[in-house]
Specification:
heterodimer, A: mainly alpha, 7 helices, B: mainly alpha
Amino acid sequence: MNVSITGPRILMEIDVFGYFRISITQTVLASFAVMITLCILSWRLGKNLQKRPGRRQVLVEKGVSMIYNLVSDTMGSHNMRFAPYIGALFLSSLLGSLISTTGIFRSPTADLSTTVTWALMTTGLVWYHNMKNNGFLGWLKGFAQPVAVMTPINIVSEIAQPISMSFRHFGNIAGGSVLTALVYGGLASLSSLLLGWIPNALISSIPILQVGVPAFLSMYFDLFSGGVQALVFVLLTMVYVGAACPPPQENELPAGSTPAA
Amino acid sequence: MAFFTGFESFIGVNFWTCLFTLCNLIILTVVMKKLLFKPVKKMIDSRQQEIDDMYASANESKESARQLRAEYEGKLAQTEAESEKILRESYRKAQLREEEILRQAQDKAAQTLKRADEQTQMAKKRAMNEIKDEVSVMAVDIAAAVLARDIQAGEHTQMIDSFIKHLGEQDD
């Protein structure tokens, strides 16, 4: 049984004037595929909207208003402008996790680069809005609240936040793929053990147990875990960014008060 | 440029991958906002607006219909009261008129009766007078007859008889 666990394959490396080297990995390819798919879907589903909706439009409206409701419930109705970003993030994450089931692409969410980028995006949004609302010094002061002793803890929690978010998402998806690979390997060994008594080498090498059994695993790791992780990531993003963007009239939430992940 | 040069590390961050992912996410956000979220939201909002308008106008017309109905019901009640009043009035008038007619008729009847009575009395008086006249004439006749002749007992009887006979003839 040999199972090799690697990161995404580097498909192409481009040297730019010898200064730096751009590597196009499987992650980038899948990420583009996800982006293009979602863009085309948006374009197809967003045009020809009617006052009296057809069946397709009803579903589209349902989905869009679900995201709007989620945003309004979690972040407040004054933060509805984040809905497209949240929708894009959720669908990227979900489709990114599911795209591996096509067998052509490797999940972009099983690459730490992707989830780190998304988590840093969340942190960037939080910091940007904190600075915008409280000023740069106000943002810095926010770390010393509620008491100055809390400053190191607040700083650690601020740094831990993107790390925990990105590793949670990455770990769930990548761990699922690792586990699936291990089970595949194990099932291959088991079936060769089962069929080993057959003298014909061709027949005895058929990994019969690999048929069907991993489907249940895939159901959990790809469908369930992918969906849950997309939702969790998006929810955390909404909570953090929503806390940084309080309702216009009461501007009292301190900057460092975002809960630790 | 090189192809399939190997694998990334399993847990590692590649700057270029991060950059591409970031670009993808931003592009996707912009595209979804422009092509999906804004039009759909606009459509939902405009439909909601339309429904709200419809409900508002429906409520308005319902309210006005209710008002009209109340108004008409009030008018109807008023008319009914009025017609009842008129009816009662005319009934009262009719009753008065009836009484008057009755009284007039009674008066007239009484008058007629009285006049008839008077006429009867007059006729009676006249007849009495006539009789009296005749009797007086008769008495004068008798007196004349008595005075004209020397009446003998036998002759008296004969004369009276002839007078009465004569009277009867004259009466006829």
